[in-house]
Q: What sequence folds into this?
């Protein structure tokens, strides 16, 4: 049994302007000890997918359907008391906005201790020792002296590390990390990624890593899901994705990276604007921005299907296999050429 | 183009810099006690930073998180008062000008904030947030402001239909674009960008970076660009400044810095950049920095990097503080034992090449 | 924090000077001669007038008079004597202040209890029946005048239902033995119920609205989501994470409103015939007893400044961002 199995997940929000379908039929599984990377445009529904799994969307304005099976139990239909037991203990999340995710009126220490005591029957002293241990592990200098500080006394990156410490404090089975290292410098990022890798080795934890840093995905993920406009457009093993990308949007992502090795005046950018989720484009949602658009793309929505070569490589695009291979090769060659 | 920095750390200025930062320090007191508080220590967030920027130039700033980049940025736009040092904007000393005298200058110098959400008022609609600076400085009728705001929304890749939404209805990346739009609204001369694209996905990031470059070409804008992504910094900057623990550790023009870094910390940074290719990325060996991140409350003696430096020399680096040694063409690095070449593995860095003997500075 | 404290205190002192000065000037310029009042009004003889003028220092220039007034106030803690009744104003206030204090503070407690419970509840269940009912209550509370509410209340509860007294005050510490008046804590509370409710309704309405808005906004904050993600139960989230943040602005408001409330007390005291500061000043106005009126105003000012100072300190204590900057 998979640790987490998400099936046809849909989430929409009621807003003043109408209904925003932020997640529209997303499916994937996460196995024990595995890292799933989720990449995609900002606003494509990556965070909302994970918030829905954790049951953290505002109930009043949100409608969700589908299934999220956690060790066989559907989280979308679980009682809130059951959810509470799972959250923060078996499954924890690092949020995207470290600056606002910590309570400004409580000390860092108090917030960490709370996380421990909610799930473990231990004294404050034990919990605090654990908190200190984690703060050191995420690289807060002089943690003893800073544990009683308030969040506003920390820099952005330090708050992010506190959030990471809080998520790891109960050794979760699944860690959902929503852009965990965006606010960090590369050396600290390397440290944190190592820490997460260690957690994975020691406890067999699984990780869902949301990021738009393709470098981080390439180095940490086993499987990668690419999202565009609330839908999955490609899902593959990390090697396949980077060596044989099959979707024009993925090509666009890889092409628009600034790379250390190259020297371009302008970055390649995907033309056009991100689509509105209030009125998503007909057919393939990427078609208004796709350089390879065909007639069928405007009318028919492509299904997420396995490629002929590889049943584990899913993609949703109408282009024929030959064109895809040709374009993918061109892209890979151009990026490889830069290295030489 | 770059300002030469003499070996004594003094800057030689030529007079038409847009911004000169001279020996700026910012200390935050740490206090204990509820009513009678006494300062028990100080966070030396920024400790003697000097640099200058020419009009139309982009200065990238990189460095560990917590090394004082945001604090420096806030000091420059006068959101924080400096503890010591001088800040000159267009030849005017603005270190201590009053709030009122600062107002016209705020039009010339705007900031994009690191935390997009905290800097957006949750009760105001997006249209209002972006239009506010225009209204504050009385630039246009309400109709003009609205048109300009919608134009800006489009420029930063949002839909004009977002005009009436509230910030919490946006994803992280979308919030950041609102911040960019707000900074652009008044057509400033200098934009201090504190991690403007960190929260953006690569395609929007490419849009924003291209946009910033286009605006620079069209209007001669000047940027201070703080970021963690070294690829991005390299792409956008003319010159790059590396900070460590409140101080400048290396400054060079972009190509030099990435091709021949001199400071071991710069080397460690460059080696840790993730590579978007699974095979090469996992094969790459990052230079791992050992030891705890030092605290800016009581920074290490001598060279601040010495407790974590692979080429630390006992009795020298921990005793004497290095100056910013010049390497020609505006390239300076604060190290007694600069790197001889690049790239290097961790092992090579530790061994310290033979080239050191010649480059070792004359002892005072 | 220490600097914050010093700043607040200096500010309070400054305000004190400004307000007493303005009060003093207004009363100084009033077309009413205290010396004449002292000598028995219209039939005052010139000799009496002259000695009285000298005795009161009325012949000295304005700044000197203000100085004397301040000196008397600060060093002798004396507000002077009434020219009309020759009674010490301190004594008058000492009798009236506890009445007003019971009214204002008891009322504040009532309005906070109502404001908090209804406000929080409607924030947690927006658009529920209770929420809608609360909004109607807010509407009535905000638009009604205390005199009107007071009259309705005393008619319904006192005259028709006989559950409460219609008017009058009962001393908390027991009435003077030979007066035959009701006294003691129970009687005190019993007599105060209606005034409290009248008084509270006005402010409770405002507070329900404000607390509801603040709590709803705070519930949307990212750190509340963090607390949920930790697995914290809703109750704990409410008390430990939401309320403290949501009530920060309420505390500030409370400090300001206590001042406003003192003003509102005049009407309530009038309707229920409570011998408090409000009624004292109404009587003083009718008797053209400016000295007493001035005393009441100065006393109220000091009280308001004092409470604001306390609220500022309380605020700093709750919000670490202020405490530490
Ligand atoms: N509470 C909400 N009310 C209305 N719309 C929302 C709400 N939360 C998110 N959305 C919308 O849902 C879409 C998906 O948002 P989400 O936060 O999942 O994006 P994301 O993929 O995580 O992007 P980013 O990379 O920028 O974080 C966005 O278009 C956003 O505007
Ligand atoms: N108001 C404050 N009071 C006390 N210390 C502060 C305050 N603001 C910042 N600091 C400290 O100053 C140092 C520098 O913080 P700053 O926010 O400038 O770092 P940064 O380089 O921007 O980091 P990041 O990349 O994580 O954003 C940190 O050690 C931080 O804890
Ligand atoms: Mg997100
Ligand atoms: Mg910062």
A:
């Amino acid at each position: 049994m998979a640790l987490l199995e998400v099936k046809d997940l849909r989430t929409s929000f009621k807003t003043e302007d109408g209904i925003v379908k932020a997640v529209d039929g997303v499916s994937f599984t996460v196995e024990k000890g595995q890292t799933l990377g989720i990449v995609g445009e900002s606003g494509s529904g990556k965070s909302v997918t994970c918030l829905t799994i954790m049951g953290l969307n505002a109930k009043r304005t949100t409608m969700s359907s589908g299934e999220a099976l956690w060790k066989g139990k559907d989280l979308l239909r679980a009682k809130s008391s059951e959810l509470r037991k799972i959250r923060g203990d078996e499954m924890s999340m690092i949020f995207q906005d470290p600056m606002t995710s910590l309570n400004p009126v409580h000390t860092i220490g108090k917030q960490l201790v709370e996380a421990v005591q909610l799930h473990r029957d231990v004294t404050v002293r034990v919990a605090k020792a654990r908190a200190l241990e984690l703060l050191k592990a995420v690289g807060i200098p002089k943690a003893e002296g800073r544990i009683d500080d308030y969040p506003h006394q920390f820099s952005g990156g330090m708050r992010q590390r506190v959030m990471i410490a809080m998520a790891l404090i109960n050794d979760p089975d699944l860690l959902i990390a929503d852009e965990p290292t965006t606010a960090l410098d590369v050396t600290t990022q390397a440290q944190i990624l190592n820490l997460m890798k260690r957690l994975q080795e020691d406890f067999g934890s699984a990780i869902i890593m949301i990021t738009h840093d393709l470098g981080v995905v390439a180095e940490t993920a086993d499987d990668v899901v690419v999202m565009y406009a609330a839908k999955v457009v490609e899902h593959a093993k990390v090697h396949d994705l980077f060596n044989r990308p099959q979707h024009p949007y993925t090509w666009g992502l890889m092409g628009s990276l600034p790379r250390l090795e190259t020297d371009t005046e302008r970055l390649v950018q995907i033309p056009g604007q991100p689509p509105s989720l209030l009125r998503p484009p007909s057919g393939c949602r990427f078609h208004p921005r796709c350089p390879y658009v065909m007639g069928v793309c405007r009318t028919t929505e492509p299904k997420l299907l396995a490629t002929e070569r590889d049943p584990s490589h899913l993609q949703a695009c109408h282009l024929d296999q030959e064109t895809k291979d040709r374009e993918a090769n061109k892209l890979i060659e151009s990026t490889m050429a830069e290295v030489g | 183009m770059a300002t030469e920095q003499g070996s004594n750390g003094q800057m030689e200025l030529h007079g038409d810099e847009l911004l000169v930062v001279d020996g700026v320090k910012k200390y935050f007191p740490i206090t204990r006690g509820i009513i009678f508080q006494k300062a028990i220590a100080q966070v030396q967030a920024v400790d003697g930073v000097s640099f200058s920027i020419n009009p139309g130039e982009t200065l990238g700033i990189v460095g560990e998180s917590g090394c004082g980049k945001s604090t420096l940025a806030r000091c420059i736009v006068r959101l924080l008062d400096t503890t010591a040092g001088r800040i000159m904007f267009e030849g005017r000393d603005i270190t201590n000008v009053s709030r009122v005298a600062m107002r016209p200058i705020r039009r010339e110098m705007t900031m994009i904030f690191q935390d997009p959400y905290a800097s957006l008022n949750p009760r105001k609609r997006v249209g209002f947030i972006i239009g506010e600076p225009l209204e504050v400085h009385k630039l246009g009728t309400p109709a003009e402001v609205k048109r300009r705001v919608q134009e800006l929304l489009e420029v930063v890749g949002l839909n004009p239909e977002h005009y009436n939404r509230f910030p919490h209805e946006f994803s992280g990346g979308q919030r950041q674009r609102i911040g960019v739009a707000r900074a652009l609204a008044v057509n400033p001369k200098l934009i201090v960008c504190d991690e403007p694209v960190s929260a953006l996905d690569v395609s929007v990031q490419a849009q924003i970076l291209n946009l910033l470059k286009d605006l620079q070409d069209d209007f001669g804008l000047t940027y201070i660009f703080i970021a963690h992504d070294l690829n991005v910094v390299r792409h956008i900057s003319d010159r790059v400044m590396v900070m460590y623990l409140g101080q400048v550790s290396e400054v060079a023009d972009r190509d030099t810095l990435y091709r021949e870094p001199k400071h071991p910390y710069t080397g460690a940074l460059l080696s840790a950049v993730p590579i978007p290719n699974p095979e090469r990325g996992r094969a790459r060996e990052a230079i791992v920095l050992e030891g705890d991140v030092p605290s800016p409350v009581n920074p290490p003696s001598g060279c601040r990097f010495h407790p974590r430096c692979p080429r630390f020399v006992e009795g020298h680096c921990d005793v004497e503080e290095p100056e910013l040694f010049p390497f020609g063409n505006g390239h300076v690095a604060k190290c007694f034992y600069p790197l001889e070449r690049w790239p290097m593995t961790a092992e090579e860095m530790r061994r310290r090449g033979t080239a050191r003997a010649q480059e070792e500075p004359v002892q005072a | 924090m220490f600097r914050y404290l010093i700043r607040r205190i200096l500010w309070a002192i400054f305000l004190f000077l400004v307000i007493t000065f303005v009060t003093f000037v207004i009363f100084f310029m009033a077309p009413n001669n205290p010396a004449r009042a002292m000598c028995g009004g219209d039939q005052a003889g010139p000799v009496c007038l002259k000695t009285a003028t000298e005795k009161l220092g009325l012949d000295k220039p304005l700044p000197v008079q203000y100085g004397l007034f301040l000196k008397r106030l600060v060093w002798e803690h004396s507000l002077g004597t009434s020219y009309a009744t020759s009674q010490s104003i301190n004594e008058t206030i000492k009798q009236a202040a506890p009445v007003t204090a019971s009214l204002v503070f008891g009322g504040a407690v009532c309005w906070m209890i109502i404001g908090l419970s209804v406000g929080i509840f409607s924030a947690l269940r927006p658009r529920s029946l209770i929420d809608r009912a609360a909004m109607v209550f807010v509407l009535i509370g905000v638009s009604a005048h205390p005199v009107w509410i007071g009259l309705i209340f005393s008619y319904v509860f006192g005259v028709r239902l006989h559950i409460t007294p219609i008017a009058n005050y009962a001393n908390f510490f027991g009435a003077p033995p030979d007066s035959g008046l009701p006294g003691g804590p129970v009687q005190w509370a019993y007599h105060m119920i209606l005034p409290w409710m009248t008084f509270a309704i006005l402010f409770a309405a405002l507070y329900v609205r404000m607390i509801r808005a603040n709590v709803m906004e705070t519930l949307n904050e990212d750190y509340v989501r963090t607390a949920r993600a930790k697995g914290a139960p809703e109750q704990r989230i409410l008390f430990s994470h939401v309320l403290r943040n949501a009530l920060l602005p309420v505390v500030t408001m409370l400090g300001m409103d206590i001042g406003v409330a003192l003003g509102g007390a005049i009407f309530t005291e009038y309707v229920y015939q409570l011998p408090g500061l409000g009624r004292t000043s109404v009587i003083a106005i009718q008797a053209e007893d400016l000295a007493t009126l001035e005393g009441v105003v100065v006393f109220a000012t000091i009280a308001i400044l004092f409470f604001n100072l306390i609220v500022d300190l309380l605020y700093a204590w709750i919000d670490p961002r202020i405490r530490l900057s």
User: Anything to note?
Assistant: Chain A has two domains: 4-225, 246-339. Chain A touches chain B through 73 residues (CB under 8 Å).
